[in-house]
Amino acid sequence: MARISRGRNLRISDKDLGMSRILRDFKHLNGSFVKVGLQGSLGNKIHKESYKTVIDIGATHEFGDPESNIPERSFLRGTYDRHKKDWLKLNKALLLKLLTFKLSLTKSLDVMGLRLTSDIKKFIRKGIAPPNAPSTLARKASKGKSGRVIPLIDTGQMINSINYVKVEK
Fold this sequence. Notes:
mainly alpha
């Protein structure tokens, strides 16, 4: 806000009520985002029961592998389809908090990353169709797993490798 005082000496004072911070923060917003999925050191680890990385195992399940008789169980795209409206609402709420200085960019990216990660894990834990084949159930039973056997959860390595990475510009 500029104020001009009239009198013998003309004085102009300019009080910044937050606009420079808004401009600075929104410059950083452009290009900042959260990546969620199987990535980084957890995703690049070798899966406990194969020679493939956790990322490879995840990609096989996400898209399926008919040659290996593995059906598509889309845990990433499926979660997105289920939650995209909720995620857009959260994104708008976080943007409003950024505009009103109630939340920093770093914290808002953390909130979004934690929410997406949590939603993906919950989606998997509810069980993604199709159910495990009888041969898979038998293999898991031979390892002592009984009760409700959920597709995509065997050793727990893949679901525990789902995380987020913040990219701040």
